[in-house]
Amino acid sequence: MKKNALLPCxxxxxxxxxxNSFKKAENAxxxxxxxxxxxxxxxxxxxxxxxxxxxxxxxxxxLDKWRRDLDRQSPEERRKYKExxxxxxxxxxxxxxxxxxxxxxSYKKDTxxxxxxxxxxxxxVDLKEIIRPNKR
Length: 136
Fold this sequence. Notes:
Layout: H1 2-17, H2 28-41, H3 44-49, H4 58-71, H5 75-83, E1 86-95, E2 98-105, E3 111-119, E4 122-134
Antiparallel strand pairs: 1-2, 2-3, 3-4
């Protein structure tokens, strides 16, 4: 009887844990690269994993806007973003917990700088201080 009760509990535990195969970033560069790649690919679950969950939800709102803008584009446009390479331009360490990651992608040559912060030992992207793209 006890064995039969244990199996449903184990199953529920496995389902609740899910299959989160995202790996925590080891450093600011990893966090930036993973976030940017996920964003270009349209993988917003993964992008959210590397996004700082701020108390005002401003980062989430910015990512949601990014998602809506990409979703409005044609399948061809989305494919080009997915195939684009990340072109790091400058990775500047501001201090031991803040790094600025400036990049473009091979499809759109616009330059963007994102802020990556270390919070409680974890590297995460903070979009609140994104520096607007400039044409190269």
